[in-house]
Amino acid sequence: MSAGEFDAEPRPAGYYHLVRAVLYREYVLFVRYPANAVGGIVVSLFFFGLLFFGGRMLAGRALTDSIEGIIVGYFLWTLSVGAYSSISSDIGSEVQWGTLERHVMTPFGFAPVALLKGVAKIVRTFVTSGLVLSVMLVITDTALQIDLLTVVVVAALTVASVLGLGFAAGGIAVLYKQIGNWLNLLQFGFVVLISAPAFDVGWARLLPLAHGSGLLQRAMVGGVRLWEFPPTDLGLLVAVAAGYLGFGYVVFRLATRRARRLGVLGDY
Amino acid sequence: MLPHDGGVPSSLADALTDRRPSDDAAATDRALVDDATGRDLAVAVEGLRKQFGTGPDAVTAVDDVSLEIETGSVVGLLGPNGAGKTTLIKSILGMVLPDAGTVRIRGIDVFERPREAYAHVDAMLEGARNDYWRLTVRENLRYFATVGGVDPDSVADRHDRLLDRLDLADRADVPVRDLSRGMKQKVSLASVLAGNADVVFLDEPTLGLDVESSRTLQRELRRLAEDRGLTVVLSSHDMHVVETVCDRVVVMSEGRIVADDTVDALLRGDDAHNVRITSADFDADLRAALRDRFEVVAVEPLDRGARVEVRTDSDGLYALLAYLRTRGVALERVTTVEPDLEDVFVDLTGGEDR
User: Fold this and answer.
1) In chain B, domain spans
2) Higher pLDDT, residue B193 or B213
């Protein structure tokens, strides 16, 4: 008689199990270590407080008139920063812990794990940014049109492009360790991208965040529902999201392959 | 299947029985018949070469290495710092892309069909945490079983036994970050064994373990290889671990394999042995005469006479004793000095750490 005879045959894991494992891990970390999320919310609100109260002192009514647009833009910015920095720094941490190498040598590889982590980060960031949004609306005594389906779909697709940039930055950081910190500065550039529609330049819609930011403004300030947007606008939103995600994936793959060639994949 | 008493797992080997999903087994069996000699190979490396940098600063970390590791064997990889051990292991695993050469794991080309090959492999690499410290011990096992291609629910019982054998059962639901260094090391090992890998690479697996844990680990690794056919490639600076656990030792120096043999054969070496002779008659004149005629490796002057160590083969030993007899030397004590693996290692590599 052996111990093994009491066991069922080990069953192979499919993508369903992988999705469950990665999302469960992200969930456990979120609820077990809430300090990071709480800290992020506090910092976001602090900066918004500075922006709002400081701006009102300086610009007075001009700021108050455009407060809806500022709130939506700030909401999108916190979403973008959350998704970008969490995925790029997450990849850096995986390198440092040796778990990236370990994932690379699994039947699934690291790419689907990273993508699932990205999805989890977006969900997590929606929760924290949603809280920030609620507090902003209370502080400023402002009302927005929040159709949950429209906001979630448009914002998620918008932020997906930034997630692609996060993958690319994470991949480059695997290859060039010192550059990783500098790439974090990119998130301040998101402010420009989020306000890009104001430039009214056609090609600007192809930049990450820009087109989606415009649609989100129309949804949350103007009350446009998802199905009321022209199909071309939604198509462009999807295309930009897929394009940057694909770009990030390709850069990540190329960077990790180059790192394997140079023998620096696990270095930190 | 391994025998044990009354349904209670008796070893880590028991804990890891029935590792392979049946649909994978057929493919594996087919893949294993690719060796012309008919041997059951877990790892086959041929002509592996890796150079870092170019021009005069180029360093050849792995230089035309060929190596075959049979299924179920425990192979120790030894070498001084910079000998190329880690690069070799990482090249075998595809973490470093070599400039030339092929690697087959269970008959599957790692570079052509990595995903299939990786279903058989896991590794604990040097200096890596290897797992998630903010997850609990059990969560790590479940997670790494999943990414390793195994439904964690189907191996939950095995995980319990694994934790039991590694004395981690009462810490199963504790986040790894809250454990001691030695325990973290054991969790790393447990997570490597949590999936379905039948070829595992362990870089310094006993580092940070206390003596008792290290012994337990050595014993269990040995049993795994013998009972379950688990193939282990173990790199360690602890010669005792290698000597105790490994069937075979591969010694690397400057990117090349300088010795590849069983531990016994390496320890036996050639016919030469060191013989230590103590005599009150070993004065300076006689010691100088011995140095001229024999390979004297050590001389320790005593209050009366000296203790002289001579490296010699059988014929040389007869000649040595005959010579001492002609000089009228009274032998007080004659002993042979058995080399340990460290002596052999120093002999092979020149004892240099680059």
Assistant:
1) 12-267, 270-338
2) B193
Distance from CA of A83 to the nearest CA of B (A): 21
The DSSP letter of residue B255 is T
What mean pLDDT is predicted for residues B169-184?
91
Most confident segment among A123-127, B138-142, B184-188: B138-142
Backbone CA torsion sign across B145, B147, B148, B153: positive
Nearest by CB to A266, which of B50, B125, B132?
A: B125
Sheet holding B100-105, edge to edge: B59-70, B41-52, B100-105, B108-109
| pLDDT of B259 above 80 | yes
Q: How many CA atoms lie within 13 A of A244 on its CB side?
A: 25
Residues of B in contact with A25 (CB under 8 A): 132, 135, 139, 143
Q: How far is B263 from chain A (nearest CA, A)?
A: 30
Domain B270-338: top CATH class: alpha beta
Output the CA–CA distances (angstroms, integers) from residue A64 to A44, A60, A141, B76, in the order listed: 19, 7, 10, 72
Nearest by Cα to B206 from B247, B237, B170: B237
Mean pLDDT of A213-225: 91
Of A13, A25, A29, the CB nearest to B150: A13
CA B45 to chain centroid: 17
Phi/psi at B53 (5° precision): 80, 175
Among B144, B143, B162, residue whose Cα is nearest residue B14: B162
Q: Which two tokens stand for residue A14?
A: 């499919």
Q: What is the mean pLDDT of residues B153-174?
A: 90
- Domain ranges, ordered by start, for chain A: 13-262
One-letter identity of residue B337:
V
Q: Is pLDDT larger for residue A74 or for residue B352?
A: A74
- CATH fold, domain B12-267, is Rossmann fold (3.40.50)
Q: What was the pLDDT predicted at B219?
A: 80
Here the tokens at position B156 are 């939950």
| Cα nearest neighbour of A26 on chain B | B135
Q: Which residues of B touch A13 (CB under 8 A)?
A: 145-146, 148-152
Residue A17 touches partner B, C-beta closer than 8 Å: yes
Q: Does the beta-carbon distance from B154 to A10 stay under 8 Å?
A: yes
ipTM metric? 0.85
Q: Is pLDDT above 60 for B18?
A: no
How many Å lie between the alpha carbon of B48 and the closest alpha carbon of chain A?
14
Bridge-based pairing of strands B248-253 and B74-78 is parallel
Pairing of strands B41-52, B100-105: antiparallel
